[in-house]
Amino acid sequence: MEERQRVGFVGLGTMGQAMAANVARQGFPLTVWNRSPGRSGPLVELGAREAASPAELAAASDAVVVCVRDTPDVEAVLFGPDGVAAGARSGLLVVDCSTISPGATREFAARLAERGVAFVDAPVSGGSEGAQQGTLSIMVGGDPADVARATPILMTMGKTITHVGPVGAGQATKAVNQVMLSGIYLGVAEGIVLAMKSGLDPATVVRALSGGAAQSWVLVNRSERMIRNEYPIGFKLALHRKDLAIALKLAEGVGAALPVAGLAAQIENGLIAEGHGDDDNSALARAIRAWSGLEG
Predict the structure, then answer these.
(1) Active site residues
(2) 267: which of 85, 215, 259, 293 is 20 to 30 A away, CA to CA?
């Protein structure tokens, strides 16, 4: 039987902790580290070991998965004091599942390559439910040999793993994903509000539409939240706004017009200013409801 790679996992937030748990459940020897203490307990119960620093984690691993919030956070855990690079040996593979800048991704890969460390960008989509169930969609950028090495690890976390191109292509694809989602969230929110204002039962409308051309993951999984005007966390609105900033900057650089994504970004700015940044991204419906004179 092929020997399992030793995996290090950096970043144990809502997504990362669930993803790391799936790695452990599939039998990979696992070492974990999180910037804020107190997140590793459930993973230690699954057999993981907690490292004192990313450097120590890297020294004990064949592959290191990173899942943190933003571009500066990835740079800090890779290249900061006691970062992954400080403990890395030639031949280590870094798999970044964060959502960050494609340009910074290419820069980080080049810096690691100077140390003989391979890099794959593998941002994910599917929310906290997908992370828990191991059904994430993962968009992978990197050299084919490095992607092949990362794939058995990624398969513990995701259902759809797609190699989309060289390093940075995964992040660019995730930007496309977030742009498309912004329009779908807005469209579903507008439809729900129109149904409610027209005197229709919105739950019945959702059932009627879910088998037709309007069907989407957002319609099926987030419409009830929009109807109830309650938005428990799945994926934070503030994080989607961060992702849209990456997408809008990419669009500016390549000359792509994104009017719907730009509108969604502005609506999200208002919601964040009102204190809704930690709501699920479906809270975009708050604004549509308010403008339409619905309660809440």
Answers:
(1) 174
(2) 215
